[in-house]
Write a structure and sequence with these properties.
Layout lengths: L5 E2 L11 E2 L2 E3 L9 E3 L8 E20 L6 E6 L2 E6 L7 E19 L10 E9 L4 E7 L2 E6 L4 E4 L15 H7 L17 E6 L24 E4 L4 E2 L4 E10 L4 E7 L5 E5 L4 E5 L4 H7 L11 H7 L5 E9 L7 E10 L8
Antiparallel strand pairs: 1-9, 2-5, 3-4, 4-9, 5-8, 5-9, 6-7, 6-8, 10-11, 10-13, 11-12, 14-20, 15-20, 16-21, 17-18, 17-20, 18-19
Length: 348
């Protein structure tokens, strides 16, 4: 049984952690309204999406609309090309491949030659499925195996087909796959032991190093409302900006959104499709959530865009919107690095 979810790109919260500069788009879709498409580029340019993940199977649908024989959609697995296509077929094509189980880097690329544009001048993928392997969990509470019940909203004992309540002595691969949870719910309802054990199964060949010490740390479930903060002290730009690199850490569907300002009054985000700066109201929760930049978005912003907003001697302020989905999720800003177009000469 494969474990994985189909990424339809219908939600702005993507299942997989892509890097690169592709974007969700409504221009084409295999199903629904959205797909994942190459960004708009000029002649002799390319646009890429990358994904590194542990798997043994990948499947997706692709579509290209371009100048036949010159502007190409390409797909690579660990640098080996698997698809190279151009022109417009007016149909979605399915790609799938079984792989030895290990970590892979997948790359989707759209590349243009030096002249002429045809069709959409883009490539798209949709309904991406990646088998992430079998993972199952049990909570052992005073020797009784329990799983989370959505209907009861608490942990309940596992009862097999013979009406027997299962204990830790009954653990087997068959029991894991038939009754185990795919995810742990960090709640304490239904549990007696203050530190119940977790039993974990995976077929990835890499399990917990010290299973006897692998225990569930219980926390009260609390709402995690968005928190918006901004810097009171800006950075004085010593030269024009070449690029900005943001490092942060988030887990599950938690997010950090970013906005930039020169004066702490007007805040800006960059619209990748329109290729221009846009004003965002950071005091408006919905506006900041929809428009706010993520750390990966900064990789796609070119120096010409920064030059349109910031000049040497300006101040640069950052605003942050932190949103944690669950009480145990991680949502942490680490650092910002500003690269200048010219090296800074220090006068001693």
């Amino acid at each position: 049984m494969a474990v994985g979810k189909i990424e339809t790109f219908e939600s702005p919260e993507l299942i997989y952690n892509f890097t690169g500069d592709w974007l969700r788009t409504t221009q084409r879709a295999y199903q629904g309204s959205f797909s994942y498409g190459s960004r708009s580029i000029g002649h002799s340019q390319e646009t890429n999406a990358y994904l590194t993940i542990h798997t043994d199977y990948i499947e997706f649908y692709w579509y290209v609309s371009s100048e036949g024989g010159y502007d190409f959609f390409e797909f690579y697995i660990d640098g080996e090309i698997k698809i190279r296509a151009s022109g417009t077929s007016n149909t979605w094509t399915k790609f799938s491949e079984n792989l030895p189980r290990r970590a892979y880097t997948f790359r989707w690329r759209y590349v243009k030659d030096g002249s002429v544009s045809r069709g959409d001048d883009r490539a798209y993928i949709d309904n991406l499925f990646i088998n992430e392997g079998e993972k199952r969990y049990f909570i052992e509470d005073e020797n009784v195996l329990k799983v989370w019940s959505e209907t009861q909203e608490k942990y309940m004992p596992v009862i097999n087909d013979e009406a027997k309540t299962l204990t830790a002595n009954d653990l087997s691969e068959e029991v894991f796959l038939h009754y185990g949870m795919e995810e742990i719910v960090p709640r304490k309802e239904g549990l007696v032991d203050s530190q119940p054990r977790i039993h974990f199964y995976t077929d990835e060949g890499k399990a917990v190093e010290n299973p006897s010490n692998y225990r569930l740390k219980l926390k009260e479930m609390v709402s995690s409302l968005p928190k918006v903060v901004w810097e009171n002290v800006g950075r004085t730009l010593e030269e024009k900006i070449e690029s900005i690199m943001i490092e942060d850490t988030v887990s599950n569907n938690s997010t950090i959104h970013y906005a930039l300002s020169k004066d702490k009054e007007t805040w800006y985000v960059y619209d990748q499709e329109l290729e221009q700066w846009e004003v965002v109201d950071i005091s408006n929760e919905l506006d900041f959530a929809i428009k706010g930049l993520r750390s990966s978005d900064f990789q796609m912003i070119q120096k010409e865009a920064y030059e349109a907003l910031f000049q040497k001697g300006d101040s640069l302020y950052m605003a942050y919107r932190f949103y944690k989905v669950g009480a145990t999720d991680e949502c942490k800003f680490i650092s910002i690095r500003i690269n200048y177009v010219e090296p800074i000469t220090k006068v001693v």
